[in-house]
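Anyone able to model this chain together with magnesium ion?
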Amino acid sequence: MAQNNDLSTVELPFSAILLDMDGVLFHGMNPIDGAIEFMQSIENIPHAFVTNNPIKLPKSMADKMAEIGFKRPDEKLIITSGEATAAWLAKQKPNFKYYAIGAGGLHKSLQKQGHEDKENADYVIVGEGEGIDYASITTGINLMIKQDAQLICTNPDTSVDAFYRGKRAILAGAGALVAPFIVATGKQPITIGKPKPLLYEIALQTLQTEANNCLMIGDRPDTDIIGAQQLGIQTALVRTGRFRPDEKLPDQMPKPDWDVENLAQLTKHLLCLSNA
Ligand SMILES: [Mg+2]
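re: yes, here you go
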């Protein structure tokens, strides 16, 4: 049964696929059931990964996928909010000066495009992971108030389902960690990750395709699905991350084109569609 699931051999209403990662392909170091097979089935369809997770560099994400059983993706196809933040800032102001708060991957992404400068930063950048504390909040709000540094938030997620010190846990996302800076200064951040269009736009450019030729697969209606819909990208929601199959979506959330339990069910739907 698993032999001919190559989706590139069937007629589909899209010619490229964008995928979220956490909650779609894996949880921590565990691949989600059917995800490895799904990636094999789309091996011959142009695809890219768009993740709001700014903690890891694309290389680390690709290494992790290989480590847990996926074919190692080309790291150029992995668009993280950390990389997108650095690229966007470099466009606004080449050689920008920044003060960043968040895990190692974000710092590495920023170092490639700008210069860390705690005294004269143009931007105060808040990402995810450990690093925020009383001292870093103080440095950040002083830069914002006294030097008019612009607040940047890598991604709007208020919480993240992840692993922390070996245990599954709900962690504060960048959208929560940025709150002290907003409250203390009364200033709003510029936010980079999904549902904002930048990650999708970088992915579309990378694949050299148009929004209406694409399918986005994600587990969060409030970021993955709504962001893609706003650009005219078709959408599939998998119930392997933020929502379980039996959970009702809150009323105000956008309806995806496909609402499926998992990637295996999505494959079945797509195969049926092509036989219809
Ligand atoms: Mg996700």
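The chain is about 35% helix and 20% strand.
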